[in-house]
Design a protein that fits this description.
The complex is a heterodimer of chains A (about 325) and B (about 190). Chain A contains nine helices and eleven strands. Chain A is of the alpha+beta class and about 325 residues long. The chains are: A alpha+beta (about 325), B mainly beta (about 190).
């Protein structure tokens, strides 16, 4: 029998759709005077996020020099923020991102990301623009918007900003989510389990759904909300079963950023995960001043899956990891 | 027994859960962009037949189950055990009543069944999808009714009772779908 794994897993139709999608995206930003940029995929620093694992490699200096550790980017966020600090103005990038994590229907460790930044926008204004992009590329109906807290109150009768772990563990039971020793999960992981199993299946069927106002403990690189600092100005976009995009009204305070990096690494220590080298270029850039801006990252492969009604990410990738 | 990571989970994989061997029916990897990864898994317990859903933390390990399927021909029962034979090696295996369960009514001599072994012992016996059995008792039915509407109960040689069309009579051999327990056709002569 001939081995057929040299062949692509995508159809020619999927390749045509990808080319069209890329063209439309570029046209969309061109019309809005957003500049296309490129930044390195390999970097000396990387993200400290506890649940983001970067692929690591090294550059052998030669001539007896010690090898330099390098990381494949999990997103172009840090480098793009450095451009913003250097007065680039509005920018976007279409690039590969890499995450050292499992494979699945919606997951390939190497994937294509569209990321863009808008000086002068807050997260609400950026949601408008994401919505406009989806309407142009996918012909979607206008998106809906939901506060994270309101969704939990509506579907679970739980206030996610005040509930303690026992309340969340009871809710797991009530919704038949069976997991060993749930007490050992963090409050955020419990909230994410409930969100994924109970709320996500209820939203974003007919129209894309934005969720904003995540708990401050899940702020990542978003600033805290000025009216309710228990929440962060972060949003996610859900559509037809996929988490499509994640955006922030960007944190610009260098010292708070440094503190979040430190907290991440401390948490990595308690979980026996390796500490990550902090990206000093980013911290230096933030110290010199990041213009007030909002930014978002959107998974283009998933967008293509939805456009084509594909059931697996392999259907829109030429060579998924197993064939790469 | 070896441990298996959730990264190796896929349909058909056999694992231990609550001391019982199970088969994975579906596995979905779930990972929020900014959160912890989980595997949502649908599992069938192989002894009780119970289907359940379970969530694992991605990267955690579970014990694998030494479960294999073998194709063996049914020989006979001695009243306590049911004896099967490998038609190639002539090796024999005895399954108890618990392993055979309700499928006892579909056991036909020389039919090749799937015997699932856990640590070498039979835990389930699955008959072929279709078996041929003789009707030992059924009402004569109405003369002239050939359309077979409605049907009537018929008792088969193994004690199984199935609904058959009115035109089928005692002494005839019929083909039955063992998965649904329904009449399929008269047996080909």
């Amino acid at each position: 029998m001939t081995d057929s794994t040299w062949q692509p897993t995508s159809s020619h139709q999927a390749r045509l759709a990808r080319a069209t999608l890329l063209r439309r995206v570029r046209q969309f930003f061109d019309e809005r005077d957003v500049l296309e940029v490129e930044t390195p995929l390999l970097s000396h620093g990387t993200v400290t996020d506890v649940y983001l694992d970067a692929f690591a490699t090294q550059f052998d200096g030669g001539g007896g020099q010690p090898a330099t550790p390098l990381f494949l980017q999990t997103s172009p966020e840090y480098a793009m923020k450095r451009l913003l600090c250097a007065q680039s103005g509005p920018i976007y990038q279409i690039c590969k991102a890499f995450r050292h994590e499992g494979e699945g229907r919606w997951h390939n460790p190497e994937f294509t990301m569209l990321e863009w930044y808008r000086p002068g926008f807050d997260h609400q204004a950026l949601m408008d623009e994401v919505d406009a992009l989806l309407q142009v590329c996918l012909d979607t109906p206008g998106a809906t918007r939901h506060a994270y807290q309101a969704l939990f109150l509506h579907y679970l009768n739980i206030d996610p900003l005040t509930a303690d772990k026992s309340v969340l563990i009871d809710a797991l039971d009530r919704h038949s989510i069976d997991i060993d020793s749930p007490q050992s999960l963090s409050t955020d992981s419990l909230l994410q389990l409930l969100f994924g199993a109970v709320i996500e299946p209820q939203i974003g069927h007919n129209a894309p759904a934005f969720v904003y106002g995540f708990p401050a403990s899940q702020a990542a690189l978003a600033r805290l909300n000025s009216d309710d600092p228990r929440t962060a100005d972060r949003f996610e976009l859900y559509y037809q079963g996929a988490e499509l995009a994640n955006g922030f009204f960007e944190l610009s305070d260098a010292s708070e950023q440094q503190q979040r990096f430190r907290q991440d690494n401390a948490q990595r220590n308690t979980l026996n995960l390796p500490e990550r080298p902090v990206d000093h270029h980013l911290l230096d850039a933030l110290k010199s001043g990041l213009p007030s801006c909002a930014g978002v990252a959107l998974g283009l492969d998933r967008l293509l899956m939805i456009q084509l009604g594909a059931s697996h990410i392999h259907d829109v990738l030429n060579f998924p990891l197993s064939r790469a | 027994m070896a441990n298996i990571s959730t990264n190796e989970f896929k349909g058909g994989l056999k694992i231990m859960l609550d001391g019982e061997p199970c088969t994975i029916m579906e596995n979905e990897y779930v990972k929020p962009g900014k959160g912890q990864a989980f595997n949502r898994v649908k599992i069938r317990k192989l002894i009780s037949g119970k289907v359940l859903e379970k969530t694992f933390r991605s990267g955690e390990t579970v014990e694998s189950a030494d479960v294999v399927d073998t194709e063996l021909a049914y020989l006979y029962t001695d009243g306590e055990f049911y004896h099967f034979m490998n038609n190639e090696t002539f090796e024999q295996i005895a399954a108890d009543e618990k392993a055979v369960g309700d499928n006892v009514k579909w056991l036909v001599e020389n039919d090749v069944c799937t015997i699932t072994l856990w640590n070498g012992s039979p835990i389930t016996v699955t008959p072929p999808n279709f078996v041929e059995l003789e009707i030992t008792e059924t009402d004569p039915g109405l003369k002239g009714d050939t359309a077979g509407t409605g049907g009537k109960p018929a008792t088969l040689s193994t004690g199984a009772v199935v609904r058959v069309p009115l035109f089928v009579q005692t002494g005839e051999v019929i083909k039955v779908d063992t998965r649904s327990g329904e009449y399929a056709s008269r047996a080909q002569k």
